[in-house]
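Build the 3D complex.
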Amino acid sequence: MAAAGSAVGLGNIWGFPTQAASNGGAVFLMVYLLMVFALAYPLLVAELTIGRYGNADPITSLRKVWPQQKALMGLVGLAGMIAVSLILSFYAIVAGWLLGYLLAPICEAAGLVSLAHWLETFGSGRNLVLMLIFMWLTVMVVRSGVADGIEKWSTRLMPVLLLLFVVMVIYILTQDGAWAGLRLYLVPDFSHLSPKLIVSAMGQAFFSLSLGVCTMMVYGSYLSKSANLPKTAAQVALLDTGVAFIAGMLILPAMFVAQHNGVVIYDESGALLASDTLVFSVLPTMFDTMGPVGMIVGILFFVLMIIAALTSSISMLEVPVSCAIEELNLKRHTAVWWIGGFICVISAVIVFNFDALFGRVVTMTTAYAQPIIGMIFALLVGWIWHRDKVLQEIRKGYPAVESSLFWRIWPWYVRIVCPVLMLLVFFVQ
Ligand code: TRP
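Done.
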């Protein structure tokens, strides 16, 4: 449940539809699905398995897999920690925008029109304040260890979110212009296929499944020995991809409805305009067209999305925090405040240099760091870790694994296919 909470978040509703809209729609969707099942799923099993075997923070877990190379494994763990902290620093900015769009209509209804306007208008001050509020929420959850409660909540709310999505998809498809968006999303035009598209789809798959930065390793370490790892990973991957797919059915048509109503979304060269913020300007416009129910639908939507983002952000903060607690013997309370504060500082630097830094940090972490560190995990599981030990670990929750199709394919697959596919990142620009 927690791993699903980590996976479902802004990556599904903001990252995936934006990438799909800028990369030819249906072709991106197809390559993305291929990447999730051919690459991300096997790696998710690998990361969860290392974590559960180690039953400790990521640095110690990695060292248990390769005890002869303690220093090297420490560095790999550190690289994951730095990457995940950078990811959280931009994630908190985007999640802050959700808070803004939630609060704006409420302020407006209360007569605070200029505050509502400020909350909805892109600007450094507004981005900073909203980011700090979101980070504060994340810190509070991780600090008090109420993550348990939040996860239970979020799994109960997940079906509500899905249902709301379905209702919104039906609504948007009744609007003029929507079918052009749906066509872009579902009818492939292979002229868009390019090496860059493949790399973007891979990065998006890694991002959406929270891979390559030790997040799933930490969550693996919290799993019980009776959990069936390949099955758990499959459930997480299916749920996450399902949510992304439905979000695409909503967002792409919504963009074209906005275009139909006079909003310019693509420039002359066909590139998506203001792609980072587009989703958040298209959705409130859609809620406005719904009349009085629009406000309720909008509030419900943003509340659910903020909870989904929170179950993701806590999984990120948990990585450096678990390392600091176990490796440096810090108290949870102290570790959370120091690390949370440090991430706020990085995030503030990005806020004040948004144009120069935001896109770069996103690409550097998701398209490079995640696949590269993920490749190191695959190499570890495939080449360093003894096959029998891997088998032993997976067998604990899946006694019949040895005779399964999974075990006939997966070990070789992680050993050869995954690293080769990920090498693409180095050669394709
Ligand atoms: N997967 C989450 C999403 O789709 C975000 C996330 C949580 C994440 N933990 C992560 C992304 C670790 C990269 C690395 O919103």
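Residues 17 and 213 are 23 Å apart (CA to CA).
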